[in-house]
Design brief:
The chain has 210 residues and is of the alpha+beta class. The protein is built from seven helices and four strands.
């Protein structure tokens, strides 16, 4: 296990909080072990199975007949095809979330080599092709949206004020637009993330990294 005692852990009210938040910790992660991988498989399977049972024609027929679906019926070929379709949706979700995470990391200081390392060790050029808008010049005004807690936000740079601001739409459909008062991209991202979490739907409050 890596030594994490050197990583600063200021509280939110500490004057160095945002400085610490904007500094890239190296290494950014520890490698997941086999137990972590198995746990991830189980959680993904739970989520995908729930979707498969909602979209399965056989399961819909049992619900229409007001009958319980025997779990063994999920092994039928058509139910497994519904599971396969649900797995595809999970893959699409992963791609969207990966793009969001890469954009936030890249806009906050990570480079394409680091993004590629995080994405299973792909090369820097492959990471650039995968997420062409993730890493940009510090003063760029182009804004790329990211998703969190069921909502969407985008962080913008006000060149004249040399400050950052954000727009956000929560999962509850409420919208906001901040003033250009944030000193860094990371600070604006944090403000947008807090808004999205505050306006998540019940039961959808996501942990960090969602």
């Amino acid at each position: 296990m890596m030594d994490v005692t050197a990583v600063p852990t200021p509280d939110r009210n500490d004057e160095n909080f945002w400085t610490a938040a904007a500094a890239l910790v190296e290494p950014p992660w520890s490698e997941p072990d086999q137990g972590d991988a198995f746990t991830m498989d189980e959680r993904v399977h739970d989520a995908v199975r729930a979707l498969a049972e909602r979209i399965s024609t056989r399961a819909q027929a049992y619900r229409a007949a007001d009958k319980p679906l025997d779990p063994v019926l999920m092994a039928s070929p058509d139910a497994q095809l519904a599971l396969l379709r649900a797995l595809y949706e999970a893959k699409q979700s992963v791609e969207r979330l990966a793009e969001s995470a890469a954009t936030v990391a890249g806009r906050s200081g990570a480079n394409y080599a680091q993004l590629g390392a995080a994405w299973g060790g792909i090369k820097r050029q492959s990471a650039r092709l995968k997420w062409p808008h993730a890493v940009v010049r510090k003063a760029a005004s182009e804004s790329i949206p990211f998703h969190h807690a069921g909502g969407t936000a985008a962080v913008h740079h006000d060149v004249d004020a040399d400050a950052w601001w954000y727009t956000a739409t929560g999962a509850d459909r409420r919208e906001t637009e901040s003033e250009p008062v944030h000193r860094t991209y990371a600070e604006a991202i944090a403000g947008a993330t807090e808004y999205l979490l505050a306006h998540a739907l019940p039961g959808r409050q996501a942990p960090a990294g969602d």
